[in-house]
Design goal:
Shape: elongated
Strand content: 5-15%
Distance between the termini: 51 Å
CATH class of the largest domain: Alpha Beta
Order of helices and strands: HHHHHEHHEEHEEHHEEE
Number of strands: 8
CATH topology of the largest domain: Heat Shock Protein 90
Oligomer: single chain
Radius of gyration: 35 Å
Length: 356
């Protein structure tokens, strides 16, 4: 026991002893009667102990109990009141100080998180407004021009209506993507997990996007050595959506006459790692931590020219996290980009619909 870790009762006893011992010794020397000296030290010690303990608990620890109640920020239950009344005074000042410091650290972390969330919310709303504003203003412009007389020109009318329809489709895609992300976040979309061969799904996705890849003469293939069928346990349609988004991105930002390579590896007995790699321009290091955020674009002008809603990677992230897995990215300028994610390995039995 050290003086730094004394409880209120120990502190009161030590102080009472330091007071009563010299006084009783003085009485003993004056009276030359050890019985009177013994009685004196007992009386003085008991009185001092009771008075000091009462003072500590009544005035000092009463304030500490109030601090604890304020820390909890709620009306105390009967159990908590008992704790504050009988158990808390047993704590040393250092223990109380540590509790308050821990609470302060927790509050600081929560404040920092709230600040980050506020900054994210502000950026998100700003980006959302911009994403909606662009097609809305375009539609408004085309409609106004048609109403002002351009409708009489059949060629102009057709071209403007086609552009209006294209921007309307962009708005619909934005709304659908936002709705899907919201459902994934809130767990409203259930996952139908089953066993399937991931290489077959990748080949199927390559085939469905072959027109886009052929336009840039991009070869889409599975990495050599990864052809052996590997079974994963996941929602096949959702994972296909992830693969479509990743392969479309690799096609958009990949180089002409380049290649897209899918690799599949078992990381352990329980998980499988799937990676989609391109040999395009790559992504700057400072952008990598944010590419899965909604509407985040490493090059806003170029990204909008290439189409898309800016939500593809965010949807991928939510789908993979709904499976209880994680997604990551690696990239180097002029070398290319690799985006990978993990899935559960083969299960002995399918359990059907599972909420995320």
């Amino acid at each position: 026991m050290t003086t730094r870790n004394l409880s209120p009762r120990q502190l009161a006893a030590l102080t009472a002893l330091l007071l009563s011992a010299p006084i009783a010794l003085g009485i003993l020397l004056l009276t030359q009667n050890w019985k009177i000296g013994l009685v004196s030290i007992l009386i003085i010690f008991s009185g001092s102990y009771g008075l000091i303990l009462f003072t500590l608990e009544r005035f000092i620890y009463r304030k500490i109990k109030l601090i604890y109640k304020l820390i909890h920020q709620k009306k105390a239950t009967l159990k908590e009141e008992t704790y504050f009344k009988y158990l808390l005074p047993q704590k040393s000042i250092d223990e109380v100080r540590k509790d308050v410091e821990d609470w302060a650290k927790t509050q600081n972390k929560e404040i920092e998180l709230l600040k980050k969330n506020e900054a994210y919310r502000r950026d998100f709303l700003q980006n959302l407004a911009h994403e909606f504003k662009t097609p809305v203003f375009a539609i408004q412009g085309y409609v106004d021009t048609l109403l002002d007389g351009a409708m009489e020109d059949e060629v102009t009318r057709k071209r403007f209506l086609e552009n209006t329809a294209r921007n309307a489709d962009r708005l619909v895609n934005l709304v659908n993507d936002l709705d899907e992300i919201s459902q994934l976040e809130t767990g409203e979309q259930s996952l139908y997990r089953k066993n399937f061969v991931i290489q077959d799904l990748i080949r199927e996705t390559y085939e469905s996007l072959s027109i886009k890849t052929s336009q840039k003469n991009i070869r889409a293939l599975i990495k050599k050595g990864c052809e052996t069928p590997i079974v994963v346990y996941a929602d096949k349609e959702k994972i296909k959506q992830v693969l479509i988004n990743l392969i479309e991105n690799a096609t958009k930002y990949g180089k002409q006459n380049g290649s897209i390579i899918a690799s599949i590896d078992k990381t352990d007995d329980l998980h499988v790692l799937i990676e989609i790699s391109d040999d395009g321009a790559g992504i700057e290091v400072e952008h990598l931590p944010r590419i899965f955020e909604r509407f985040y674009r490493t090059d806003a002008a170029r990204s909008r020219d290439k189409g898309g809603t800016g939500l593809g990677l965010a949807i991928c992230k939510h789908i993979i996290e709904a499976h209880g897995q994680h997604i990551h990215v690696r990239s180097r300028i002029d070398i290319g980009t690799t985006i990978g994610f993990t899935l559960e390995g083969k299960k002995s039995e399918s359990t059907g619909y599972i909420l995320p």
